[in-house]
Amino acid sequence: MGNTVREIHSTQEFNDLIASGEKVIVDYHAAWCGPCKMIAPAYGKFSAEYSNIIFARVDVDDLAEVSATAGITAMPTFQTYKGGVKVGETKGAVPDNLKNLIKELASL
Q: Does 77 qualify as catalytic in the annotation?
């Protein structure tokens, strides 16, 4: 069975995940964001295909501090991390762009 998408509920949980050094992709989203809802199934599908990457989600309204620190200005925004460092980003609900970002992270 594939990966699941992990909901992040606190700044500490987010910091611990990034500091783990694992390959991580974070979906910064909001409950009121239509495009976020549209791309969520694709994000879940990709999580099943790439079991060596941790897929996480951050609600920008619930974790405003995390979103501000990450420089999030639009939803959805996807950021990738490896070794505790941000290595990539894409904005918008474009499945091909998301897949390319995930492929880049997988190849690192």
A: no
Cβ contacts of 59 within 8 Å, gap of 6 or more = 7, 29, 30, 31
Question: CA-based angle 102:56:82, to the nearest 5?
Answer: 55
Residue from 17, 26, 36, 101 carrying the catalytic annotation: 36
* CATH number of the structural domain spanning residue 84: 3.40.30.10
Q: 96: domain range?
A: 5-107
Whether the per-residue pLDDT at 95 is higher than 50: the answer is: yes
> Is residue 1 scored above 50 in pLDDT?
no
**Could you tell me which residue, 2 or 67, shows the higher pLDDT?**
67
| 33 given a catalytic annotation | yes
